[in-house]
Amino acid sequence: MTARTLKIALAVSVAVNLFALAAGTTLLVTRARVEHRIIEQSRPLRQPPMIEVMGDLTPEVRERVRESRIASALAARPDFREARRKRREAVELAAADPLDLDRVRALLEQSQQAELRGRARLEADSLRLLSELEPADRKIVARILEGRRGRRDRDRREDGAHAPRPGTGSAAG
Questions:
Q1: Model confidence over 48-58: pLDDT tens digits?
Q2: Burial, 173: exposed, middle or buried (Cβ in 10 Å; 0-12, 13-18, 19+)?
Q3: Strand partners, 164
Q4: What is the pLDDT of residues 34-75, one digit of tens each?
Q5: First CA to last CA across the chain, in angstroms?
Q6: By CB neighbour count within 10 A (0-12 exposed, 13-18 middle, 19+ buried), where does 43 fall?
Q7: Residue 93 in contact with residue 107, Cβ under 8 Å?
Q8: What is the pLDDT of residues 66-100, one digit of tens each?
């Protein structure tokens, strides 16, 4: 082999190695993004965003809380799926002719019970987690007990608006 051939082979080898390094880095970054999306999608809708709750925690506590919340959400997922399925069945049956009001009512009650089971599981897991934390961390993480309504009402109060009057569904002001 000539010196020129060796230089070309070295240049090709360096280029291939750089390409492989770039591909590996891209794979790692993409994998992290996909895992983050999966975690976000599995998060129950009624919980505050984890990033909002855990921003001030130490990395060790943050990871422990994150793992606990993911496990809790995955455990409650079947109850929430059942609740949605029963509600869809009730809607379909309510639109059918003839109307079977007792069956629709039963399906709606089953949907509510399934949702309550899921929420109870999330709340019980949250309480267990809170009981394991130090007071300063517990103060931060306690916000996971706020439901969507709790955040919405708090945000409204901070904006200067009033909470809705019972039975009206609109803000007084």
A1: 566 666 777 88
A2: exposed
A3: 171
A4: 877 777 776 655 545 666 667 778 888 888 888 898 899 999
A5: 88
A6: middle
A7: yes
A8: 889 889 999 999 999 999 999 999 999 999 889 89
Counting every residue written for the chain, the total comes to 173
What is the model's pLDDT at position 91? 94
Residue with tokens 């709606």, as numbered in its chain: 108
Q: Name which of 122, 114, 130, 110 is nearest 75 in CA terms.
A: 122
Q: How buried is 138 (Cβ within 10 angstroms: 0-12 exposed, 13-18 middle, 19+ buried)?
A: middle
Between the alpha carbon of residue 72 and those of residues 10, 17, 39, 143, the distances in Å are 53, 43, 12, 16
Residue 7 burial (CB count, 10 A): 10
Among residues 145, 107, 111, 110, the alpha carbon closest in space to that of 125 is found at 145
Residue type, 75: A
**The predicted structure's pLDDT at residue 62:** 86
List the structure tokens of 66: 């994150």
Q: What is the 3-state secondary structure (H, E, C) of the chain?
A: CCHHHHHHHHHHHHHHHHHHHHHHHHHHHHHHHHHHHHHHHHCCCCCCCHHHHHCCCCHHHHHHHHHHHHHHHHHHHHHHHHHHHHHHHHHHHHHCCCCCHHHHHHHHHHHHHHHHHHHHHHHHHHHHHHHCCCHHHHHHHHHHHCCHHHHHHHHHHHCCCCCECCCCCCECC
